[in-house]
């Protein structure tokens, strides 16, 4: 997709909240995933139809994304997380520094969320994997949260996961 | 990573008597090793049960994929070696993602099924969540508000407070409190989607967007600990089969130093003149009828004991009488008509009462209406308002 095609869609999303942190500091404590996701969820959900339940859902999804960046990110650079809204949908843009060798992994992981066998792959992972890999976590977001996931690679060495979450419709 | 923080956030328990393994709180470990003790507990539970093991995740607020895969692994492995065993995962309709997440296990192993815990689990909820009751609930609140607007400040209600109205019903009390006391925040929770839809509609009609209406189970709320200065729960402990459980939740979400305010009735004390005997007989029967459905509409004067047993101090109790002389007597009569329709027309029928009993039962309500509308009559509905402070 080129920039000219993308911009009109981007313009329709209203920015809600953004946080940035040194990646090294973020990686110093696993609890940051829980703390950041809980705080951001509470803040952006206050004017949803059911703020408490929207916050619970959103925190669940955002925490998984932050855990993906925690497990796959490199300590140099910054992690940034911005949340936007368009109608019943929130968009999360999670940017984090990623080792060059990992970029192809994320391309494929995101691509798998759009394939026809996504649900079968997810069930297979629950059934056989000892622990969820990062690509299964993205699959889970697509399946349990109806997330639409894509990847932006505009500013190496960072990558940006762009995740649209239509949670208002699920919650209410 | 601090595993002690993680341990403080969640609880795992196994009750061998009910063959129930339960998970509650927030479970977001970095690796499965951090929840090894809980996983071992589940494995032991599986080894020690016969027939069916219940996996209770009603109070599971958050669970990451790492934890889900680890617990799912134990269940799916057990399915492969214990074909004699069924696993029933009990989720809450409030936490929607748990139903989705655990529902996948059934696609892998049919021995694992998911049941959604909902209002049907409460004995009398279908009566009180009946949408035909909505107009009369508005009238009831209008009548009690005349008293409560002066009572609430005595129990600690102040402008700017963070307030939660639990079992908010159609949300009219929250609207009135907002207008009168201007709390800094209001969360209003109820388990009836129809009532909440009505509440949101009314609020939107008035251009009010700052009341956070939320669907929830009052006995197992998603709300965090120690959040609110003032927690109200009106006319609800009395229609809940485990009022102590509900009160424990109200205590949990209240800030230390904050107060929980409850109102309840003693239905057998409803009164009227003339025709007092018929009225008294009927309301004695109302108390018995509710008791049949595991609800205690005599709870009002027991409020002090319930609050003390739940750990509150500085307990205040007072009572007030809503009467036909408060405003329009027809409002009082309309409320009694609604009671007659639900109590005699639905609940007594459901209990299997004979027609002659139901007719006498109805007569008491009609006599109460007669007293309310009589030019020299007096009709009353007593209510107990009580509050306690959560110790600092």
Automatic annotation (TrEMBL), chain A:
One of its GO terms (biological process) is methylation. Keywords: Methyltransferase, Transferase, Ubiquinone. One of its GO terms (molecular function) is methyltransferase activity. This is Ubiquinone biosynthesis methyltransferase UbiE.
TrEMBL record, chain B:
Residues 165-258 form the Methyltransferase domain. The keyword Methyltransferase applies. InterPro entries: Methyltransf_25, SAM-dependent_MTases_sf. One of its GO terms (molecular function) is methyltransferase activity. The keyword Amino-acid biosynthesis does not apply. Keywords: Methyltransferase, Transferase. Coiled coil: none annotated. One of its GO terms (biological process) is methylation. This is SAM-dependent methyltransferase. It comes from Sinorhizobium saheli.
